[in-house]
Specification:
This protein is of the alpha+beta class and 427 residues long. The protein has three domains: 2-160, BirA Bifunctional Protein, domain 2; 171-267, no CATH class; 270-377, no CATH class. The chain contains 16 helices and eleven strands. The strands form three sheets. It has a five-stranded antiparallel β-sheet with strand order 1-3-5-4-2, sandwiched between helices. It has a three-stranded antiparallel β-sheet with strand order 6-7-8. A hairpin with a 2-residue loop joins strand 6 (208-217) and strand 7. Helix 10 (270-285) crosses helix 11. Residues 41-151 form the MobA/VirD2-like nuclease domain. Residues 404-427 are annotated as: Disordered.
Length: 427
């Protein structure tokens, strides 16, 4: 089970979001704690809000006073209403909110039932309830609840699913937006790249590319970024999607800040010298592009080659999965520019045993001698000892495939709350 904890200054907006689900018959009120009840059991947003008003009046200084928590069991777990009731009470008590007014909504609008809890984080005396080590405490409580109710353990699920996280986008499988999101939201946490070209080279391993867009809006030039799914041949295979759909960190301004930060940290990075050595050795020991890529691939280095319509190479990028760094060839040195590889591969016509053997082979997916077409399982990032597994569960949240599907309305609601907060700051 995964818990998501959110805070905002918009109590009415949070209650309205859940109440709208009820109106659409996609939710119901499951439990009320220290709330003013009605005779018929039906509630408007205003009626629900009245239970929280005394607490908010007692403390006008806490800006983000509204607490919005969702508890998400695995889709395969069958949780009864009574169990949800007990889980919500136990969770809130252990988190320090047992004496607070709170309302529990059960949502049933996606392929998994889950509950949302709305409360406030200031008590009746106007004191803010401590949120120290909140996420760590929340995860410990979730592990206890999993054991008590026999629920699927989220950490085990991550271990079983690590081959499905960060997989290349399959445009035929549908839900392209969610597939792209599971990549672009997390890549900046694991890899360093200094230009949009290097970022695109990394994304190409996942059948994604980006495209800059520029235009005039209200008399000002605006820049934006589109994310585009690709097929196995690197061709466009779907509609472009705005970067804003994947969060502000996927947009051009945030990426440009990331490029500058990475440029500084990579200036004297030891990975550069090691990569130059590996590329130089492979270039000398192979005479075909396929075997060059295969040789580097065995060293956990992917090679992305860009060609124009005539087949001439105009760019080459190396992705070192061990150091998690991305380098354009020219950044490594002039000797690794596109021209070098054009001369070495396109103008070197001699047929050696390597190239002849590749041409004569019947290519099969299981042939161990084939050059690597798929990215390295880098996607084994989740097994790294330097990462805390609990932290990854919390960070990945509902992006874990087959564990917790995205509720798009929920994501949109959270995004709108952030936008409203930003607009108020800018006034």
């Amino acid at each position: 089970m995964i818990a998501k904890i959110g805070r905002s200054s918009n109590l009415y907006g949070t209650l309205s979001y859940n109440n709208l689900k009820i109106e659409k018959e996609n939710a119901e009120i499951l439990l009320m704690n220290k709330m003013i009840e009605t005779v018929d059991g039906k509630y408007t947003v205003s009626q629900l809000a009245k239970s929280f008003e005394p607490y908010l009046l007692a403390n006008r200084n806490t800006e983000k006073h509204t607490l919005h928590i969702s508890l998400n069991p695995d889709p395969k777990d069958k949780v009864s209403d009574e169990e949800y009731w007990e889980i919500a009470q136990h969770y809130m008590a252990e988190m320090g909110y047992g004496g607070q007014p709170f309302v529990v909504f059960k949502h049933t609008d996606i392929d998994r039932s889950h509950i949302h809890i709305v409360s406030v984080c200031v008590d009746g005396d106007g004191r803010k309830i401590s949120d120290k080590f909140e996420r760590m405490r929340s995860m410990d409580i979730c592990r206890d609840l999993e054991k008590k109710y026999g629920l699927t353990t989220a950490i085990d699920k991550v271990g079983k699913s690590n081959d499905k996280i960060f997989r290349p986008v399959d445009y035929r499988a549908g839900n392209v937006k969610s597939q792209i999101a599971s990549v672009v939201r997390h890549l900046p946490n694991y890899y360093q790249y200094q230009t949009l070209g290097e970022y695109n080279a990394l994304l190409s391993l996942f059948n994604i590319t980006t495209e800059k867009i520029e235009g005039e809006l209200q008399g000002k030039m605006r820049k934006g970024l589109l994310y585009i799914p690709l097929n196995e041949k690197g061709e466009r295979a779907g509609h472009p999607l705005k970067a804003s759909l994947f969060g502000k960190n996927a947009g051009l301004p945030a990426l440009e800040l990331q490029f500058a930060k990475n440029k500084a940290s990579l200036k004297d990075h030891p990975a550069k010298a090691k990569l130059k050595y590996a590329v130089n050795n492979s270039l000398k020991s192979t005479s075909s592009e396929d075997f060059f890529k295969k040789d580097l691939g065995e060293q956990k280095i992917d090679t992305v080659v860009r060609r124009n319509e005539t087949g001439r190479i105009y760019g080459i990028t190396f992705i070192d999965h061990l150091s998690r760094t991305v380098w354009n060839g020219s950044r490594l040195g002039k000797e690794f520019s596109a021209n070098t590889f054009n001369e070495h591969w396109n103008n070197n016509i001699k047929q050696n045993k390597e190239s002849a053997s590749i041409k004569s082979k019947i290519l099969t997916p299981d042939d161990e001698n084939l050059p690597m077409d798929e990215p390295h399982h880098l996607f084994g990032i989740l097994n790294n000892n330097d990462r805390n597994m609990d932290g990854l569960v919390e960070a990945l949240g509902s992006l874990i495939p087959e564990t917790h599907g995205d509720d798009q309305e929920e994501l949109d609601f959270a995004g709108n709350m952030r936008k409203k907060k930003k607009r108020r700051r800018n006034r």
